[in-house]
Structures are given as C-alpha cells and as structure tokens.
Amino acid sequence: MDFIITLVNGLSMGGTYAMIALGYTMVYGIAKMLNFAHGDIIMIGGYAILVGLSVNPLLAVLFSMLFCMLLGVLIERVAYRPLRGSSPLAVLITAIGVSYLLQSIILAIPQFGADTHYVVIIKDLGSLQIGEVLIGYDTIITLAITIVVMVSLTLFIKFTKTGRAMIAVSEDRDAARLMGINVNFIITLTFAIGSVLAAVAGFCSLLDTPWLEPYYGSLPGIKAFAAAVIGGIGSIPGAMLGGILLGIVECLCNSVQEIAPYTIAIEFIILILILLVKPTGILGKKRREKV
Fold this sequence. Notes:
By secondary structure, the chain is mainly alpha-helical. The chain has one domain (9-216). It contains eleven helices and four strands; from the N terminus they run H-H-H-H-E-E-E-H-H-H-H-E-H-H-H. It has helices at residues 2-31, 38-52, 57-80, 88-108, 137-159, 161-171, 173-178, 183-208, 218-231, 236-254, 263-277, and strands spanning 117-118, 127-130, 133-136, 211-212. The strands form two sheets. A two-stranded antiparallel sheet has the order 1-4. Strand 2 (127-130) and strand 3 (133-136) form a beta hairpin. The longest helix has 30 residues, at 2-31. The protein is globular and about 60 Å long.
C-alpha cells in the first residue's frame, strides 16, 4: 500500500514537472532558445496567487495565469526577440539575467521581500480513501489538471491551424515565413502558452508545498529542465514522459530513508546515464542543421 501511495504521489509531482518541462520544450522546439527564467515565472505566478487570494481563490489562480502570460510575452518581446540570430551563449546569458531580475524585483517589493509566505489556496482539502489507500485531494487535483493540460495541448498542436503553424516554425522558420506564417506571433504565442503552464504548475506546486519565497521556482525549474532533456527537449510527449519519470524517481527515493538525502544527485545521475545512451533523450530526434 505504501508503494501505491508513493507511486501516486510520484505521478502527481511528475505532472507538475511535466507542465513546467512543456514550457521549456515548446520554447526550445519552436524558438530554439532555452528560457532559464521559466522557473522564476512559476515563482511570480505564486506571488500573483498570493495577491489575488485577498479577493477569491479562483480569481487568484486566473489572475496568476493572465499575469504570467503577459509577463512571458513581455520577456520575449524585450529580452529575447532582439537576440534572434545571435549566438546561443548570448541568449543563455540573457535568460540567466532575466531570472535574477525577476528574483530581485520580488526582493525589492516591501510586502514580499525575502520573507517566506504561507499560501493556502484551498483550505481543508482532505483525502479520498480507496480501499486501504488514502490519497490527498491535492494529488487528485494535480493529476486531473495534468491530464487535461497534456491532452488539450496535444490536440491543439496536432489539429488546429495555429498548432500546425507552430510545427512548421519549429521545422524551418524561413520556409514557414515564406508560406505566410507570422513567425513573430507564433513565437510570442509559444512564450504565452509556456508561461500559462508555469502559472498552472505553480498553483499545483503550492497545493503540495504552500511555502513561497523569491527562489521558489529555481529548483523545480532546474528539475523540469532535466525532465525535458531526459524525455527529449523539443518533444511534447518527451516532456510529459520525462516529468512523470523524474517525479516517480524522486518520490521513490524520498520514501527510502537511507537514500533520501541523495535524491537530487540520483535524479541527475539518471539524466547523465540516459544522455550517454541516447544523447537526444528518450523520445528526442536528431535534427538536421541547415548550413
């Protein structure tokens, strides 16, 4: 029974990682850049929820999603769009700079600062008992949201005109532009969707760990990036698979007292081993680079 509970918790945590990893993998797959500020957008989303809770929990979550979407669009327009065509190193350094900027903004706001805030979105969620297994409703909510998000995003990419335009831009940006696709709009939309997913992931994460501080999104962001690489960065199914795998591994390691202190090390050892065997990730594919 303990194993089943650990597995369910792993699926829940993995779902959160998968939602964050989807943001990484979409931006990389379409815009060909690594947005290392993505984890900090989760943190900003958490503070947006904290502000909105004074009105209504549901409105707080919706406000967080809207605010993160606008923030993602702003970051793409101001920080990343001018660097298109620049070296990957320049983009990487800029992304790190944006990450520290977002953290510094929160630290500079007197109401927030470096203090840790206790964020209760839904009080007394309770648990659901299935046989002898007791599953928290926070876990059920996270799993349900994860499934809905993953199915919706997959259907959107495969069966809508905008989704097919995203695929076209990811394959060949210049050819897509010649076919009449607005590449700037597609890339901006990708950042907007990724940022909304970050806000949703922040909501799910706060259900499980309701403690918010300026560096709240740093470690989940790094783990989700590892999940995206494990699954195959640029692949939506890969991001899902990598996130779920990492969440299950983390919960299984934390359930064993002797190896719990080394959980993060084990996760990144798995990342290294997978990349040694398959450098593109589990579901990743080699791409031909145009010369």
